[in-house]
Amino acid sequence: MKKFITINVAQAHLRWKQGSALLIDIRDQHSYLVSHAPGALHLANDKVQSFIRQTDFTKPLMVMCYHGNSSRDAAQYLLEQGFAAVYSVDGGFTAWAKQYPRDVTTK
C-alpha cells in the first residue's frame, strides 16, 4: 500500500510558489475564511466526493490542517482514492502563517 509523504512548510511553500502541487486546506470553514494560503482550496467533508470526481489524479496534492495532524489521515485517504502523489504539510497552517506571514490571505 502506498503511503503519503510528509513535507515541511518550506518544501510546501516552494511547491506552492512553483505551482507544482495543489494546496488543500481542510480546516473548518470559518478558520479558512478568516485566513488561508492564497489559492488554497478549502475541502470540507461534504465536498470530498465531488473533489475526487473533478480533480486530475496526476496533479500532486498538499494537504494542510491546523498543525499537521489531521492532514495525515486526509492525505492517506486521498492517496487511497487514486491520486498519484499526496503530501501532508507538517506544522500545518499554523507553521505556514508563522513562517510566511506575507503569503496568508486574511479577511
From TrEMBL:
Gene3D superfamilies: Rhodanese-like domain
CC per GO annotation: cytoplasm
Keyword Cytoplasm among UniProt keywords: yes
Pfam families xref list: Rhodanese
Subcellular location: Cytoplasm
Catalytically driven reaction(s): thiosulfate + hydrogen cyanide = thiocyanate + sulfite + 2 H(+); thiosulfate + [thioredoxin]-dithiol = [thioredoxin]-disulfide + hydrogen sulfide + sulfite + 2 H(+)
InterPro entries xrefs: GlpE_sulfurtransferase (IPR050229), Rhodanese-like_dom (IPR001763), Rhodanese-like_dom_sf (IPR036873), Thiosulf_sulfurTrfase (IPR023695)
Active site (record annotation): 65 (cysteine persulfide intermediate)
Alphabetized HAMAP family for the sequence: Thiosulf_sulfurtr (MF_01009)
PANTHER family assigned to the protein according to its UniProt record, in alphabetical order: FAD-DEPENDENT OXIDOREDUCTASE (PTHR43031), THIOSULFATE SULFURTRANSFERASE GLPE (PTHR43031:SF6)
Name of protein: Thiosulfate sulfurtransferase GlpE
Name of the gene this protein is made from: glpE
